[in-house]
Amino acid sequence: MAFLDFNHERFKPGFEITSTFVVTNNYRMKDTEITNLLHNANLRVTKSRKEVLQALSETGDQAISSNEIEQKLSEIDRITLYRILKAYEDAGLVHSIADGTGKKKYAMCSSNCSEGDHQDNHVHFYCRVCDTTSCLNVVIPTNLKFPTNYLVEEQQFVVSGICKDCHNQ
Amino acid sequence: MAFLDFNHERFKPGFEITSTFVVTNNYRMKDTEITNLLHNANLRVTKSRKEVLQALSETGDQAISSNEIEQKLSEIDRITLYRILKAYEDAGLVHSIADGTGKKKYAMCSSNCSEGDHQDNHVHFYCRVCDTTSCLNVVIPTNLKFPTNYLVEEQQFVVSGICKDCHNQ
DNA sequence: ACAAAGATGCAACTTTGTTGCGTAAGGGGG
DNA sequence: CCCCCTTACGCAACAAAGTTGCATCTTTGT
């Protein structure tokens, strides 16, 4: 856990991003992969749960809302979906983003998103043209000089504007 | 406007915060001040609008929800309040924060928050204990090395955890 | 003071999200 | 393979946030 004390220390996060920006794959997971993922997370394997993970893996780095998942799956119950997403978030399989649109967006955690004390420490981008939120493969460094008094548990860095696809038109 | 291109340039914002963390005043604005503020923003001066600005100025650096404002004012219509807040946001008098709670929080813009192309470029902190969101007097620098392709218009940096008051107990 | 422009207030509605509870299904033990 | 406990599902009902339309009232420039 990092500490904040803006009175005594400089707030100098010192971004030093080493990774370049690469769009993560829109990989359609195999059934066995999904089952293993659920097993490892101590979650029961059900039809709905597998479908939700499937849907999230297909969208890749693009974060989608509960409603969008519901439409992709058509058969799933709305309330069940909420509960599944909550379970996934608690388990660290999925992270949610408040992108300013008022709707929570969900995306699969990448492998570097550790369970338990899991932080979603990458930058998100919201495009106001195509109304999509995506995960950028750019990590908010955890070695920020956060001083005392404030206990920092999570950080969300959402950049909004126009994404590369919409901007090139 | 800054540009993003994670392929060619390092995402190296290079935080260099010069201001220290100081809680801004919970200053109760005078009636004439409020009137001037509205005039300068080309907004009509009405009872409700003055009261909303009053309420927001009283909370100071603490961002509050539409609902909280409604309760402080008791007489105001819920829908009118939404419209007032929208008008204030458009005019650059007020900025909103998506702190992850699902409710939009509002706070007055400080003087360095320029109108028009107004960015709310300071860090926000959400405390999960007292359930409050506050503006930190710490600015996200605008000289981030944002390269091409992505057009960056706004940035929101929300840090959450436990605030100094709740942590010292 | 008048008239146009704009703000207000009410109704009705949509969307998002939550809670409770009976039923169905998963999965470990025998 | 079946039983049974635990957990997930699905429905209803509800709560809260936010939007739209429209008639009425208020502000403000002339």
Structural write-up:
- The structure is a homodimer of 169-residue chains.
- With 169 residues, chain A is of the alpha+beta class.
- Chain A has one domain: Winged helix-like DNA-binding domain superfamily/Winged helix DNA-binding domain (Arc Repressor Mutant, subunit A, Orthogonal Bundle).
- Helices cover 29% and strands 26% of the residues of chain A.
- A 7-stranded mixed β-sheet of chain A has the order 1-7-5-6-2-4-3.
- In chain A, helix 1 (31-40) packs across helix 2.
- The longest helix of chain A is centred in the middle third of the chain and has 14 residues, at 78-91.
- The interface between A and B is large, with 46 and 46 residues.
- Chain B binds a DNA duplex (30 and 30 nucleotides) through residues 44-49, 65-67, 77-80, 82-84, 87, 102-104.
Topology:
2 copies of one chain form a homodimer.
Chain A: E1 2-4, H1 31-40, H2 47-59, E2 62-65, H3 66-73, H4 78-91, E3 94-98, E4 104-108, E5 122-127, E6 132-139, E7 150-162, H5 164-167
Parallel strand pairs in A: 5-7
Antiparallel strand pairs in A: 1-7, 2-4, 2-6, 3-4, 5-6
Helix pairs in contact in A: 1-2, 3-4
Chain B binds a DNA duplex (30 and 30 nucleotides) through helix 2 and helix 4.
